[in-house]
Write a structure and sequence with these properties.
Length: 209
């Protein structure tokens, strides 16, 4: 993940609430910085705290993407070689990459089974009445094809999830890369293959974000 004149590499981890976006994203970012790589980290929800929602932008997904574009420009000027982003995307249209022309964007969708999502969401203090919405979003995302790669985050330690997620930037540029969605199971990674950046092996499961 090295910046070029054509765009700063940005890895965006998305998925339903409770799948582990924040945990996995922070693990990747932490390892990059420990290895001396100038990297930025962004929680996309922090860039969309604007109320009421702008007309025509339910979920404020476009304003989040525009704000991310400004952050990418600022981080690059400060010397960042890559940026890790975690947070929800538009479950139908994806990450609105057209709003982030400064980025060489790779979208990595984390997924987990519905029983796992229910347990994690409630375990972190989520409201029981919101579980149905979380599971409905997971179904919509599983039927989408906007992501460059999918990684199963059901029952593995953070580092084992982070390795293929971190490697997705390289994978998306390889000749074997294809769409991530229905009919494309080869893009869903359950392996623990080595990534472009080696990661440690903490035992904490990916249970948040």
């Amino acid at each position: 993940m090295i910046g070029t004149l054509s765009g700063l590499p940005v890895l965006w981890l998305c998925g339903p609430p409770g799948v582990g976006k924040t945990t996995v994203g922070w693990e990747i970012f932490s390892q990059l910085t420990r290895d001396g790589i100038e990297a930025g980290y962004v929680d996309i929800d922090q860039l969309g705290m604007f109320y009421p929602e702008p007309p025509g932008d339910p979920g404020r997904h476009r304003i989040k993407a525009r704000n991310l574009g400004a952050v990418v420009t600022s981080f690059r000027a400060a010397g960042a070689r890559c940026i890790i982003v975690s947070g929800v995307v538009d479950p139908v249209q994806g990450a609105h990459a057209d709003q982030i022309p400064q980025a060489a964007l790779t979208v990595c969708r984390l997924r987990a089974g519905q029983d796992v999502l229910r347990q994690r969401f409630l375990g972190r203090g989520g409201q029981a009445e919101s579980v149905r919405d979380v599971l409905r979003e997971s179904v919509v995302l599983d039927g989408s094809d906007f992501a460059d790669v999918c990684v199963d985050a059901s029952a593995r330690p953070v580092a084992e999830v982070a390795r293929p997620a971190s490697a997705s930037r390289r994978s998306a540029l390889s000749s074997t890369a294809g769409p991530c969605g229905p009919g494309s199971p080869r893009r869903t990674s359950t392996s623990t293959r080595s990534a472009s950046v080696p990661l440690s092996r903490p035992t904490t499961p990916a249970t948040t974000g």
